User: What shape does this take?
Amino acid sequence: MIKLNIEGIGEFEFEDGITLKEIIEALKEDHKKIKKQEKEIVGAKLGDDIIDVHTPIRKSGNLKLLTKKDKDSLEILRHSLAHIMAQALKELYGDKNVHLGIGPTTEVGFFYDVEVEGKRLTEEDLPIIEEKMKEIISRNYDIVREELPREEAIKFFEDKKEFYKVELIKHDIPEGEPISVYKQGEFVDLCRGPHIPTTGYAPFAFKLFNIAGAYWKGKEGNPMLQRVYGVAFWAEKELKKYLNMLEEAKKRDHRKIGKELELFIIDEDVGGGLALWLPKGAIIRNEIETDWKNEHIKRGYQLVYTPHVGKEGLWQTSGHVNFYRENMFPEMQIEEEGYFVKPMNCPFHVEIYKSRQRSYKELPIKLAELGTVYRYERSGVLHGLMRVRGFTQDDAHIICREDQVDEEIRKVLEFAIETLKKYGFEEFQVFLSTRPEKSVGDDRMWEVATNALRKAIESVGLEYDIDEGGGAFYGPKIDVKIKDAIGRMWQCSTIQFDFNLPERFDMYYIGEDNKRHRPYMIHRAIFGSIERFIGVLIEHYAGLLPLWLAPIQARIIPIADAHIPYAKEVEQKLKEAGLRVEVDERNERMNKKIRDAELQKIPYMLVVGDKEWQTGTVSVRTKKKGNMGVFTIDEFKERAKKLIEEKSLEL
Assistant: This one.
């Protein structure tokens, strides 16, 4: 027997293996809430697991019934739509011609990796597939779950020529684990679930939007399959909202804006995933990095620089060679010794700490570096500045005593939130990831570290979710995501304990008792990656960056050629004040010059003509506010300098 505490209903005892469908049937007559919601229930959450109405329940726990109003129910809908899409593909292009790979859910939808014999799917096929999916939904097939013995399942999928499914059964499903299939009409697929009760539960609020190539199991050398992506929601208005966001995201694409504003390029002659910063982009980066350094020095961090390569032995000691090798660039030989370009800065910071004996009086030691690292990302996942092979981590390592842990974590989290707000981000998602089953470090260290992270989040007044068992094997962590102007969440700050490297490198300090003690080590990054953060900034502001970050802060626009000398005079005075300005000397109409300045996302346009020349003034315009009026040169200069010094987000 199993015991289930059903949220809002009560605690019950059932036979092991009962399904949610059977539970609803057994309880609905005595419980009005269940009877009222019966047709709306699409599944349940058992502990942290999302289950459907078809799956046998074999463990006790807390059970929450899920309806379409619950966010977790989207997992069930999207998983089911992946199957409906696979069935549509088979009906359209032939059961024996379509071979199925995997079809999981994504953050907002689903995809399925398929091989279609004799057919290359294109964007033009997507509306046809969508219509067939709607037809399958309208047929309202019952969805049926069955478990098959291992050999029977292998034979079943071999007969159907579903060789990718056979491989999954043989190599990815452990012996003794149930092998389940889901059926809807004539369509049968290998799947763990969860799925909606019938295909008719699915709304038409979905859209297929992309086709891409994908290696089977993500490994080069395996067959290349076609990946069909879709997005899905319970309500049409949610779908429209998301599609509008996608359209806005296209306009804000940092790759497009970066090219138009001449900020950076990724040149294939240099190498995929390796960014070249152009002069204007370098200005943005320099402003961010200079502010980063100043703020760190203010808070007691010591800046360090470390090399781009290190001996193989260093990476063996750190564990990277054994546990991270597939993400590292190939080894190079120098004078018969192996070297690797660095995927992380941590081992170098450890060696700096170990360069001499440390006393408890010196701790905490905070080492910070804008360190460029290199990781072997597959070409298929590279994406502008967001996913690159060479990037700069705003890295720091805090090495401290146990009695300093709470305060140092709080300081780091406050520093991170303060910094992100400076750049215009006000909404955050915070996750606390706790100890996984396989981990290093003793129980007490994990308890101290996890409690310190929790206290820090609560002291800063942030809401957070707990990711049970989601920490790294070497320590718990905090992850901070930021919400951009169109509602997307981006991973940013990380605060990560590490019990692994202090052990591997035998780090210690001499305590008050004159004995050796193992320090606590905290990795932390505020931006995560300078490249990625600038990519996010470009998209957040659609290229129109705050004044202090703008490569060109003002463009001076003479109405006629006769006004160029005065424009040059204004330029000189503003440059002497430290402003980044330029004169548009082109032989173009004033309105075109203003429009071009707006397209170049320049914060201020200073128009000068006879009147301005005679009065020593400038007529100030911005894209957002239009004509702001006439200012003396000194008035504008002081206004701009004040906004820059305050790092204001307003003009």
About this structure: The longest strand covers residues 390-400. The domain at 73-249 is CATH 3.30.980.10 (Threonyl-tRNA Synthetase; Chain A, domain 2). The CA atoms of residues 33 and 509 lie 61 Å apart. DSSP finds 20 helices and 32 strands in the chain.
